[in-house]
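User: Sequence in, structure out. Go.
Assistant: Echoing your sequence, followed by the structure tokens.
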Amino acid sequence: MPASAHQVDAPTLEYYLAASARSPVALRMVLGQLLRNLRRTAGIDAEAAGRSIRSSEAKISRMERAQVACKRDDVMDLLTLYGVLDDEIRKHVAEMVDVSRQPGWWQRFDGVLPDWCGKLIGLQEAASVIRTYELQLVPGLLQTPAYTEALMRQAYPLASQEEIEDRVELRKLRQNVLVRQEAPRLWALLDEAVLHRPMGGEQIMKDQLRHLLAMAQMANVVIQIAPFNRPGSIAAGFPITYLRFDDGLELPDVVYLEQVQNAEYLDKAEETQRYREVLDTLAQASMTPRESMKYLSDLLG
């Protein structure tokens, strides 16, 4: 049977808009999931849905998986096909489409932002929990500007001064997510090696360690050190970022894995569960937050 308007109500759509307003990326995911649920409830396959918008099954898949920005006309035609005819509902969905197509603030840094990284920023803007494991570097959300600059100069030795400054500014702006109202909770696991790699020299590292101590005093930030000498404190040999969203958005957890020239986003439950287990094991094997702060203080002398 076609989906009826009561299966998607105005208050729910208003909540979606409010909860993900900071992130067009997240709202695009919410919209895609909404369209998929409506299509399945209506008993219509993706091929038929594609034909209804003069396109293909592949396009429906890309829309539902938030791989492309939806067009308002396409979405309105799909709502009609799915039996969603209520004017108020359609108005709210149209607003979701418009907001989801807006550029994120980070897009003005396109010249220095890899294609695959913009999605991560958008997801972090919408996340309620950000879990991260780093084995070589201080997590970006916890870096000082001087540490970031030293890192960027090492990673991009041919970059101009302007490009380096843009990269540092981008990272500083990303860190605002931790100090805004209704900020996400950051749970950072740092391999002990991170603290002994003198990025930028001794003074920059000392300032960075002090910054970690200061950030750990925030109510929404937890920092744990994974020491060399404890069994179980070794995980995969690459960084892991795990994102969880407000339950009301009904978005799946997302794991972000970055390589040198690209990144992978995982959102299937069986995949994200495995990475959550890895992070849980690491957290249990690591120093407690209190022990970690004492260790940082001892390093500073």
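User: And one key feature?
Assistant: The chain has a mean pLDDT of 91.
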